[in-house]
Amino acid sequence: MLHTVSHSPYQIDMNALVNTIAQDDVLVLLQDGVTAALKDSRWLALLIQRNPINIYVLREDIEARGLLLLIDSHVEIIDYSGLVDLSVDHYPQVNW
After folding, report:
1. Residue 43, exposed/middle/buried by CB under 10 A (0-12, 13-18, 19+)?
2. d(CA 86, CA 39)
3. pLDDT band at 82 (very low <50, low <70, confident <90, very high)
4. Distance CA 60, CA 58 (A)
5. Across the strands, what pairs with 27?
6. How many helical (H) and strand (E) elements, i.e. helices and strands, does the chain have?
7. Burial class of residue 75, CB neighbours in 10 A (0-12, 13-18, 19+)
8. In the sheet where 76-78 sits, what is the strand order?
């Protein structure tokens, strides 16, 4: 399953997200959701600790917010092509 977070982690129920994600799921942070990928983010630490999943962040959105150098090393930066590939490979999709 593909989980996408397009809102700030302070605007959604991140605890529900953490409890919903399964081991084979992937998470993509985009739009304001990219703030969850910042170094020392408590939400990112919780996700990594509780779920050994792949976490991706959309390059265009982190660049638009001037956050490229602040992204945690546990997160893989992808472009729109990578997002399309993940969408094809992981069905269904849940948007948070």
Report:
1. buried
2. 24
3. very high
4. 6
5. 3, 55
6. 4, 5
7. buried
8. 76-78, 54-58, 26-29, 2-5, 93-95
